[in-house]
Amino acid sequence: MADGEDLFPDRPLIAEGEWAGWRLWQGSDPYEDLSGPYYSRVEPDGSVLAAFRAENKHMNGGGFMHGGCMLTFADYCLFVCGRHALADTHAVTVSLNAEFVGPAHVGDLIEGRGEVVRAGGSLVFLRGTISTGGRTIMTYSGVVKKTRARA
């Protein structure tokens, strides 16, 4: 990927407010629309940063971010962080592993980073971290399979 290349030109660019300069990820996955909104941007070093603001709907009964919410966001991160390896193809998650290492609360800015470990002909292997306030709250790894579009 070239320095400064925008991997997400098909996503709306936010012009003002907290998310100015970010791309809104919406409209292609009904479940992510329900659980988000999620945002992404390409950093100056070419890496992808994904984020969302934790709301009450993301919390469990104990007042901490629900593990299912963290896993959903990690799955989203697989696809945005692996976007260049998945260009011009459909794909599905075939494996997602995670370690929960800390809590998140309402109002926290949740950030996801990841990297492609290996991209083959049909499988892409990734790993990354989810954090808030500079501290890791989850690590993840996953495998995404490239698929053909259904007729």
From TrEMBL:
The residues covered by the Thioesterase domain are 62-135
Q: Which residues form the signal peptide?
A: none
Q: Name one Pfam family in it.
A: 4HBT
Q: Which UniProt keywords apply?
A: Hydrolase
Tell me, what is one Gene Ontology molecular-function annotation carried by this entry?
A: fatty acyl-CoA hydrolase activity
Family assignment from sequence similarity: Belongs to the thioesterase PaaI family.
Can you say what this protein is called?
PaaI family thioesterase
